[in-house]
Amino acid sequence: MNPWHDVRLLNATANGLMAAAGVALAVAAVAWVVQRPAFALQAVVVEPSVAAEPLQHVNRALLKSAGASRLHGNFFTVDLGAVRESFEQVPWVRRAQVRRIWPNTLRVGIEEHQPLAIWHDGRLVNRQGELFAANPAEAEADGALLEFSGPPGSEAEVTRRWQSLREQLAPLSVAPESVTLSSRWAWSARLDNGTVLLLGREQGMPIDDRVARWVAAAPTVQTRLNREIASVDLRYQNGFAMRAPGALDKAPADRGGARATAKPASPSRPVPAQDRSTPSKRSQ
Question: 143-162: buried (b, 16+ CB within 10 Å) or exposed (e) per residue?
C-alpha cells in the first residue's frame, strides 16, 4: 500500500512535525528570554548565614574578589557550585550558601570559623573540631586560645575530649586549657590552675570514669593536703596519685652554692578507690 494514501500515517507524521516545531520554538523563546539584559546579574549580597552573628574576621575585600572570579553567566546560567567554592576558599570562611534572588541578584550566606584552639602545627581548630588556616594573632584578639595536639586526623577527637573534660571538671571550678593526645594515643591535659592530668590510654576503666572518680574525691583530698597540686596521675585502675610542686626535687643546695640534683623519686602510691579521700603518704 502506498504510504501517501495512508491517512492515519500522514496525520501522525504531521502531528509529530508540529510537535517538534513547537518544542524548537519554545527552546528558542527560552533562550531568547534568558539572554535578555534584565537577567544579567546586578548584585551579589554577602551576609552572615546567621543574622545574629556578624562577621568578625572575614575580609570583605577578599570576598568580593573571590566572588567576582567565578561570576560567569547571568541569573539563569551562573554556576552556583563554582561561586560557592570560590567563597569557601577565603580565609575564615567555613561554609558558604549561594542562592538566586529574582530577577538579577545572588545572595551569599557566610558561616565563619569560630576559633577554639591552636593546633600543634600552627593551624587553628574551630568549635566543630575542624582544622583551618588563618592568622593566629587575629584569632587571639578576643583572648588566648586553647592548645591542642595530636596525631594527624585526630583534631575532632581531641576537641571532643576537651568538651568532655570541661563538663566533668566544672564542679571543681577548673577547666582544661591544653589537651594532648600522644603518638601512642595516651591522653594528658593541663588545667587553668596549672595542674596536669595524666589520663593515659582508653583501656581498662574508661577515662571518663577515672576522671569522675577523681572529681568526686578531689575536694576532700585537697583539703587534707592543703597545698597546690602539680599533677594527678589517673592511669591507675584502683585509684590515683597526686604530686605537689617540687616533690621530685627537694635536695637543698650544697655548701659551695651548687644545687644538688635529687635522684628521681618513685611514683606516689595511688589512692585506693575505696579510700580515695585519704591521701597517700607521699602526697602528705
Answer: eebbbbbbeeebbebbbebb
Those residues whose C-beta lies under 8 Å from the C-beta of residue 64, and which sit 6 or more positions away, are 44, 46
pLDDT over 90 at 36, yes or no: no
**Measuring CA to CA, which residue among 94, 95, 111, 114 is closest to residue 50?**
111
115 C-beta neighbours (distance < 10 Å), count? 22
How high is the pLDDT of residue 106? 93
**Residue carrying the nine cell digits 571532643:** 160
User: Mind listing the pLDDT tens digit for each residue in 96-121?
Assistant: 999 999 988 999 999 999 999 999 99
The strand order across the sheet containing 196-200 reads: 131-132, 124-126, 115-119, 146-149, 176-181, 187-191, 196-200, 231-233, 239-243, 271-272
Residue from 237, 238, 236 nearest 267 by CA: 236
List, in sequence order, every beta strand (DSSP E) within 62-120.
Answer: 93-101, 105-112, 115-119
Percentage of the chain beyond pLDDT 90 is 51
If we measure between CA atoms, which residue out of 192, 227, 199, 195 comes closest to residue 213? 199
What's the CA gap between 34 and 41, in Å, rounded?
Answer: 12
